[in-house]
Amino acid sequence: MTMRPAALDGLPLLEDLGAISGKRILVRSDLNVPLGEDENGTVIEDDFRIRSAVPTLQWLQDQGAEVVCCTHVGRPHGTSVPQLAVGPIATRLATYIDDVEVIENVRFDPREEANDVEFVKELIKGFDAYVNDAFGASHRNHASVVGPPQFVPSAAGRLLEKEVEVLGGLLLEPDVPFVAIIGGSKVADKLGVLKTLVKKTDTIIIGGGMAFTFLAAQGRGVGASLLDESLLKECQEILDGPCEILLPTDVIALSPGSSFGANCTQGDVVTYRGDIPDGWMGLDVGPQSAERFAEAITSAGTVLWNGPVGVFEDARFAQGTRTVGEAVANTKGTSVVGGGDSARAAEDFGLAGQIDFLSTGGGASLEFLEFGDLPALTALRHASNAPRVAK
Ligand code: AMP
Questions:
Q1: What is the pLDDT of residue 2?
Q2: Maximum distance among all alpha carbons in the chain?
Q3: 363 an active-site residue?
Q4: 340 catalytic per annotation
Q5: Residue ranges of the domains in the chain?
Q6: Which of 90, 249, 336, 353 is deepest in the core (most CB within 10 A)?
Q7: Region class of 180: left (phi > 0), else alpha (psi between -120 and 50), else beta
């Protein structure tokens, strides 16, 4: 038997379901794909999640199990929204695997988000076992991800297993130096994960809108850039801590009153090395910063990237994120991209194929990295068939 990585301790895997031939298994997948409309109705804009769900379903069928799948789609908040029905998703799934029924969008029922036990019982009625393969929903206390393991033998599917193995492995046994790049817009959203990462990493690179609260904490002028004054003190504490923090030393800014975003071209764009003048908005890290970040990333043993370092959707402010993304893709160490916008940036820049692991969960990845656990994983570890962990 192969040794399980420590990150998977106590988590029941597909093998822990025992003999499943002839059994009926409910699989909670994440088939929440981006949907659009054309003259013929709903269209699936990207079926990556549907294709990714197949290996677990296939494995179960290969063992002789009968498989039924459930998922959420969008945020209908407890009402039936015809545009978010699973019909087109089930049709697409059927092109990849035969004989998998898909239950209607679990979020059409208000009891899903309320984690109602009666809803859990209805969901699993007639099933012998349950599999959770929906990492992107596993940070939620929702019925379909935390409920079933209380009642039937349960397991993590292959996708969920891989996420926990890789992200958990980062927290437990990363190759050093461990460098994290944390970007995105709001510092408030990332402070929790930063507080964990300062204890786990050697260097944290901070970019994006959130960098300006750190720069302001150092007394730098940040003009009209994103700033959260209520968090200045907490940012200062992180800067004063033992972990090396790299902040932008130059910033690309947009002139007062101009707009930014995909296809915007209006306004003047200037690179500032010192303070950003009043009214100017910092929207990307400058070339000097990007180079310095890239050096730290390329020579790392482990790299974790979560969040773009600039407004990469706007071509004028994409270069910093591109340079960082290329360094992540070319690092000699292990590269992990933590879902959400950084995964989208890696894909936009054609780098996704060179990255060792792209997480499928945005909020779920951040929460897992912050707490080292998620509600749905705890639920699985409490299943009756979960492997015992030697204390
Ligand atoms: P998040 O969802 O917090 O990861 O943030 C991602 C978003 O942050 C992207 O859409 C970027 O456009 C945005 N972003 C990155 N850098 C900045 C910046 N300097 N100012 C404002 N927004 C930014």
A1: 67
A2: 69
A3: yes
A4: yes
A5: 6-160+373-381, 176-332
A6: 336
A7: beta
